[in-house]
């Protein structure tokens, strides 16, 4: 993060793992007892336990599990491509330090994902931060051009928001903007910001809450961690992989990170498209 006069410049995304599943152990035990079997997973990670449980339900293979435990079981699931089982493992993350360009790509991942993103209509972007591409940040001349453009857009937003707030205080102008005659300051500010945001660049930083299952996340990592992906979203994919592989090595530990000339990493796996 760098503070440059009136704007803050970011180059690295952040991933906060804020929510995970729990296993209702008493109910799982009741199910097993009702069906005359006894079984315990050797994993303590809820997503790993639940995906293994889901897979074993398909064949009722609780009584005589293969040796090797959860890691071997889930590795076999990936080998045979039984990807629907992985849809039962779910994580909640808050992602920050992302540009609007990136989230336009991120939200194209629909199946298995849920999103809640920062609203530029309600949030004052006069204190916005901006995400600079590495290829620009690493070149002083390019950086100067980029920074000047961002500063200009930022200043224009602040000025427009101020002028629009003043304008909408006039009942006639408020009526022309389809605001109720008794519109309060909050409503007027929202209307001002939603118009002023039109000058903000794609580099404007945003925050997004993401909920996704293991299968969808694997697809994301493989698509956005590839050499053909845009560098910023490849950075995010790598950061997410670090968090997910630490939390659930049996579901994400098969991935490898290969260094690329631009300083990012390609994500590969022997089990693609599970």
TrEMBL record:
Cofactor: FAD
E.C. no: 2.1.1.148
Class of this enzyme: transferase
Cofactor note text: Binds 4 FAD per tetramer. Each FAD binding site is formed by three monomers.
Classification via Gene3D superfamilies: 3.30.70.3180, 6.10.140.450
GO molecular function ontology, one term from the record: thymidylate synthase (FAD) activity
Residue runs in coiled coils: none
Pathway(s) served: Pyrimidine metabolism; dTTP biosynthesis
InterPro entries, alphabetized: Thymidylate_synthase_ThyX (IPR003669), Thymidylate_synthase_ThyX_sf (IPR036098)
Catalysis performed (reactions): dUMP + (6R)-5,10-methylene-5,6,7,8-tetrahydrofolate + NADPH + H(+) = dTMP + (6S)-5,6,7,8-tetrahydrofolate + NADP(+)
Catalytic site: 224
Binding locations of FAD: 84, 108-110, 117, 213-215, 219
Keyword terms of this UniProt record: FAD, Flavoprotein, Methyltransferase, NADP, Nucleotide biosynthesis, Transferase
Binding, dUMP: 105-108, 117-121, 197, 224
GO terms (BP aspect): dTMP biosynthetic process; dTTP biosynthetic process; methylation
Function recorded in the entry: Catalyzes the reductive methylation of 2'-deoxyuridine-5'-monophosphate (dUMP) to 2'-deoxythymidine-5'-monophosphate (dTMP) while utilizing 5,10-methylenetetrahydrofolate (mTHF) as the methyl donor, and NADPH and FADH(2) as the reductant.
Protein family per UniProt: Belongs to the thymidylate synthase ThyX family.
Assembly description: Homotetramer.
NCBIfam families: thyX (TIGR02170)
Name recorded for this polypeptide: Flavin-dependent thymidylate synthase
Gene this chain is encoded by: thyX
């Amino acid at each position: 993060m760098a503070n440059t006069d009136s704007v803050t410049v970011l180059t690295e995304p952040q991933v906060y793992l804020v929510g995970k599943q729990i296993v209702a152990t008493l109910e799982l035990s009741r199910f097993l007892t009702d069906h005359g079997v006894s079984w315990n997973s050797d994993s303590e990670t809820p997503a790993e336990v639940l995906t293994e449980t889901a897979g074993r339900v398909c064949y009722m293979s609780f009584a005589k599990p293969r040796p090797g435990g959860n890691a071997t079981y889930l590795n076999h699931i990936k080998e045979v491509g039984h990807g629907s089982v992985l849809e039962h493992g779910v994580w909640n993350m808050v992602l920050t330090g992302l540009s609007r360009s990136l989230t336009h790509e991120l939200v194209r991942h629909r199946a298995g994902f849920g999103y809640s993103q920062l609203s530029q209509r309600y949030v004052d972007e006069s204190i916005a931060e901006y995400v600079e591409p590495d290829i620009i940040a690493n070149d002083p001349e390019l950086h100067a051009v980029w920074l000047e453009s961002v500063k200009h857009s930022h200043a224009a937003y602040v000025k427009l928001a101020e002028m629009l707030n003043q304008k909408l205080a006039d009942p006639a102008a408020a009526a022309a903007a389809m605001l109720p005659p008794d519109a309060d300051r909050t409503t007027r500010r929202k209307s001002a910001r939603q118009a002023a945001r039109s000058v903000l660049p794609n580099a404007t930083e945003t925050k997004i809450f993401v909920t996704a299952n293991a299968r969808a996340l694997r697809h994301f990592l493989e698509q956005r961690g590839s050499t053909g992906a845009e560098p910023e979203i490849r950075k995010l994919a790598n950061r997410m992989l670090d968090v997910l592989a630490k939390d659930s090595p049996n579901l994400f530990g098969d991935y490898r990170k290969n260094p690329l000339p631009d300083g990012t990493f390609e994500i590969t796996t022997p089990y693609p498209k599970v």
